[in-house]
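Example record

The entry below shows one chain as it appears in the dataset: sequence first, then structure tokens.
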Amino acid sequence: MLFRFVRQLERSDQKKGKSGMSVRLDEIDRKILRELQRDAGQSLDVIAKKVGSSKTPVWNRIRKMRENGVIGQNTMVMDAESLGFEACFFVLIRTSEHEADWQDKFLAALRARPEVMEAHRLAGEIDYILKVRVENARAYDVFYQALISEVRIFNVTALLSMEEIKFSTELPI
């Protein structure tokens, strides 16, 4: 799903799973998670060796963490620039409308736009921030024009990222 609000992983030893029950993560679970974050394509044998366990217990731990919502879907990280998506914009959106109908329409518009890599609802003066990946400034303008034609927005500020200094999908587990 393209639109996702930030979920924070608790730094305690417990996390609420999909079932609402607490999931205990021990040091081996954390080691497994660190390895999966670095490279989810590693074999179970390799992961087991790195975490000091054997294949079957590692597989069982991974299965349990999936069932409890600790581990989500597996994806591949692509290099955007290699694929021609050279422009990254951070789009700050302020709205004067906070009704459920407006929000539903806005969220549907974002979900329908593959250019939107991330979207967050914020506290403070800015209501939403989007991370938008496109080929160039002209492609951003096409995205922008389409978005404002679908949803009434009070104010939009687009910030072009000049250089990506750090990118990671790894949580500090």
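Notes for this example: The first strand starts at residue 14 and ends at 16. Residues 1-15 have pLDDT under 50 and may be disordered.
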